[in-house]
Give the backbone structure.
Amino acid sequence: MAAAPSPKIVLLTGASAGIGAAVARVLARRGFDLALTARRAERLSALADELRANGAVGPARERNILVLPANLDDPSTPEKLVADTVAHFGRIDVLINNAGFGLPALFAESDPFEIRRQLEVNFVAPLMLARYAFPYLLERRGTIINIGSSITSVPNSALGAYGATKAGLAYWNDALRREVSHRGVKVCLVEPGPVKTEFFSALERLAPPGHDYNPMLDAPAPWMSARVDEVARRIVRLIDKPKRRLSVLRRVVWPFRLVGGLFQVCPPLGDLALSTMAEHFDRKGDLSRVSRSPGDARPTQ
């Protein structure tokens, strides 16, 4: 009797909450071996314990889930994550670049340190993870899944640095896909519309004290938001059925693209609409002087 094929190995960033945790649960139910990474070690460990308790990882439980707490804003982290995953499992079949965070602040008043952190986590880390993992992905004819954002369609002053990192991620995603498709490596971009996670709640907690929260950053109405478990299922499905670009939900993402297209055709209209909105909230101070201590929660996805 032929031996059963060994499970695929998935390295997943931003796994401690939100979309990342939901993706980890779907992957575990489908029998993948997991290397999970995020900043919050206690939440990662709790998730791994949950998956093991549910019996989702097969008989060799301890081997099938590797917990790797790490900060992606550290330039040395991507190489170490890949090395630790390969040392434990012997290979990597799938890389899911899910980790990301955004801070609600106008660019002129943003903390330079936090701008750089967003660049490192949202843009630099995915590129470097893919680069270090590429020899193993090439050997396995593997898959890279990058989690972008529909915000890139309509530049928003409230999340300018965040949107810029996601726009850069989308450009690199397409360039890499065209470079490596003939070599058997699949590269997919996911553009989630609004998803029911802690992302918007975290943004609200970071709003300046004493100011009304900016509606530009409000969580959309429930009918406009996707369920995180459904988004996770569609992301995992890309491993078997890759697509160039997956939009979730289409009824939300495509209107963003249409508005963005209109503003590209008529730039003065986009400038008028978004500049007026930014001026309004700048005068109110809703996005100014966002103060945080090192222990404060940050919006991640």
Observations:
- Confidence is low (pLDDT under 50) at residues 207-216, 288-301.
- The chain has one domain: 9-284.
- The two ends are 43 Å apart (CA to CA).
- The chain is about 50% helix and 10% strand.
